[in-house]
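Convert to structure. Protein one:
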Amino acid sequence: MTTSSILPSDLNLSVCIDEYDDNLELSIKSTKTKSVNSMSILNINGKYISDLPDDTLIKIRKMLSGTSIHAIKLDLGFKSIPIESSIDAQLSVAKFFGANRVVIGINKSAIATDEVLKSYANQISDKCISLALMPIIELSADMIIESPDDMISFISRYKKIKLLYDPCRFMERANTQPYSKWWEKIKSHVDSIVVRDFKTGLGFFPAGYGDTKIFQTINEFMLAGGRNLIFKPSLGRRYGSVIGKNATFDLGYDIFNNWLRGIKNGD
């Protein structure tokens, strides 16, 4: 284990709101008892939160009362050519929850030409700036932008667009080791890292037990001033004798916090 970093006092550890239990209210209540700084909404039972009815959104916001929302993932992809009113409606959901960041995908699509991509990015960037939101692109193996150099060139055109790095998204979809291909090139542009792990041929694992070099990545991130981590312990999949979301969450949380304590103590 690398021990050269010092655990930052302003580390922002966020947890996805549906990670602890299938019952969303119980999941949020249980997560609030952990030592976390904020929560994130990447999806709810596989759905975008913006796809849920208004009365459900009101209930969820009430459950999250007093909680800082680090990031929210919205349906801002290439299902159709971006329409300004549609983008406004999606971003209004982020503001409704008081989110600081919006997670956007730029996956491959038949309509995602260079011109559409530029128009899309321009609108998202401008509107997020006006709403005091930071747009962060979710990196994955099925993006329309296929190389780290092209991604850097793309986001460099915009003032606020940063990246969300989840190495599992590369290994899960394309069995690609992302550390050398992606992380080492794009790390200065990354705003947030998803904390989980993936083992080739076996699936998701708690952080530190897979092949993504996640602890090394986080350590480098913190040394460079990175502060935002999103804890997502493998969607409740089984690990060893652990079964179910609650136990999987607790196991992953304990493993990760023990690692953080080791860094703080110089172990």
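Protein two, convert as well:
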Amino acid sequence: MHKLLQFFRKDSIYFYASTIIAVTLFLPQYIINSISIIALITLWVINGSYKKINNVLKNEVIIIFMLLYLSFIIGTLYSNNINDALKLLKLRLPILLLPILYSTTKRFTHKETKLFKIIFIGAALIACMFCHASLLFAWAKTGDSFSELIRSHKYSYTYITNVIDLQPTYFSYLLIICLIFLESTISKTKAVKTKILYIIISIYFILFLIHITSRIALLVLVFGFLFYLTHNLFKKNYKAFFITFFILISGVIASTQFEFTVKRYKQVANIFIPQKGVVHKNSGYRVFSFKAFKSNFKEHPFFGEGLADGQEELDNYFDEIGFPHMKGVDYHNQYIQTTVELGVIGLIIFLLTLLIPLRMSIIQKNKEFFLFLMVTIMFLAVENMFIRHKGVVPYALFNALFLFGFLKKENLNE
């Protein structure tokens, strides 16, 4: 018993607990992931690390996250949906607690940081392969042709990821993080066979993103490739430039072979040119939701409607304009959702929680952290990530680890 207690008091216990949290993000139910977070916080309390909290209260990052959560609490006080607001408060606790927790504990060693990333990539690979295996098994029983497997919506988007109960946008967010880790790992790996293995895994992840037709993920990838093309051109690294260009063109060509992927991008036009009575439930919702936002913003510009009140106001607007089939569709934009619920003041605080760490990543020349934040900023523009467990936890965990957990900083100039 004494040895067990001694084990739990070791600094490495935070590495093990954090790894479990990261890996369980791919499980169908989030109960194990939630228990893992509770276990991590319990260990933090048992070890007495919380006593160091006074030493970090002067940290500007911790202060801004405290202000963000305080805005959630204040927004709850004038919310018309107090029960839903309290649920959101509980859901968003990791955004505050994880940065505080990691700021009061020792950073991972170089070996632990590297191992954490490899295990996370491995978990993502297993999840992708399991989804594809399940899909192939279902396809084999139908008698459909192979071209049908590639082209039909029946074998794409949520039909692939439903088996692990992970919405494609959130799955793609995790895979993009894996690709960020893989990029830096490949550039530092000298062993040829290991480097080839990591490249193959990266290509597989990219193909998986194409298959699940995550538009924002593919857009992020295109921007990423264009960034590296420009970077290599300025550095006069023509070999890397042509390799990157070849991969980009190959990826675009591969995307065109997935009919539903092409169809999903064509739907973008319909989203911004809505037509009344269309069959597609969500057609035009971005236009209508933005109009609803402008209407609500005029009434409550500074403090918003109240936490968790945004959806009710949006549904009322859909009723008013005669589009009841859109009720239940949220803003799909965390910046708008935050402004509607917490006003301009809440939005400013929220933006600071992104911009201050982003400035830190640039000053520290931490490439991985910089890319993670840029990807997060883009995903937040198309998804309300902070209303779901599998949106809150990935952001909260990796943001906190980049800030205070990981030891090695990846240089932006590399």
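Residues 117-268 form one domain. Residues 1-5, 274-283, 410-414 have pLDDT under 50 and may be disordered.
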